[in-house]
Design brief:
With 266 residues, this protein is of the alpha/beta class. The protein is built from 7 helices and 11 strands.
Length: 266
């Protein structure tokens, strides 16, 4: 832990946004891949990134912040990261509401040839990201007690792990789980787990079952939570301009209502 706290962070600039690498000497467990570059493919809503060995956050700051910050974990089946509609677009929406967003590129356990593990390396990356945001909260206009985590699909699993396995500074203040996948039955919440917002569609069967499992665990632990299940909408809708489905057009309103109710937008 001391190594993590003392690490000096390097940053670059990508499309006007700062990219902060989470470990100055590379992530522990990634030594064999030091110096390997990420790989990008696709464009627009289908842009994706893989070959992540040097985890980072891309910083999106609002013109006028309200003190809330969110670490966002894009999905992609732990094979790639859907960095546009589950990353950049999400950040741009929340920036308009005064929320600072930090889009995480975490290590991918199911990418070709990967030796990483979700519950070890991806979890370590999101924990480190939360830690970094808190360490630099004043610089980025974020209140250290208003740092949450949000994840989509496979990123929802990473976010749920962060909301259930934490120590001290790595505990998120709230969790937003969007159609989360993965082994959610293994997640156990304690009574001090962060409040949760969960959303899924009924025609997305596996995540629907997972969401209900998470909700039951939260309820059993006495953790405040809110669940939305749309009848239709499928999987991976994220934030896409001109969305035609009901869920694509309205889910951000439901989430914003929940955040206002928790005083996260004021």
């Amino acid at each position: 832990m001391k190594f993590l706290l003392l690490a000096v962070l390097f940053c670059t600039v990508s499309f006007g946004q700062k990219v902060i690498y989470l470990w100055s000497d590379g992530a522990p467990g990634s030594e064999a891949h030091k110096g390997e570059a990420e790989k990008a493919a696709g464009a627009g809503d289908f842009e994706r990134v893989t070959n992540v060995h040097n985890p980072s956050i891309t910083v999106y700051l609002p013109a006028k912040g309200n003190g809330t910050g969110i670490v966002v974990c894009p999905g992609g089946g732990h094979r790639h990261l859907a960095v546009e509609h589950e990353g950049k677009n999400v950040a741009q929406y929340f920036n308009k509401l005064g929320v600072a967003v930090f889009v995480l590129k975490y290590r991918l356990a199911r990418a070709e040839g990967s030796s990483y593990k979700v519950e070890e390396h991806a979890l370590a990356d999101v924990q480190r990201a939360i830690e970094v945001v808190r360490q630099r909260a004043a610089e980025w206009g974020v209140a250290s007690a208003r740092v949450g985590v949000m994840g989509f699909s496979a990123g929802g699993e990473v976010a749920a792990l962060a909301g259930s396995r934490y120590q001290g500074i790595t505990r998120p203040d709230f969790q937003i789980l969007m159609y989360p996948g993965g082994n959610l039955n293994a997640i156990v919440y304690g009574k001090d787990a962060p409040p949760a917002f969960l959303l899924v569609t009924d025609d997305d069967p596996t995540p629907t079952v997972g969401v209900m499992s998470l909700y039951q665990g939260l309820k059993k632990a006495g953790v405040p939570s809110e669940v939305h299940i749309y009848e239709k909408g499928g999987h991976g809708f994220g934030v896409k301009p001109g969305a035609k489905s009901l869920v694509g057009q309205t889910w951000l309103d439901r989430l914003s209502d929940w955040m206002r109710g928790r005083n996260l937008l004021s």
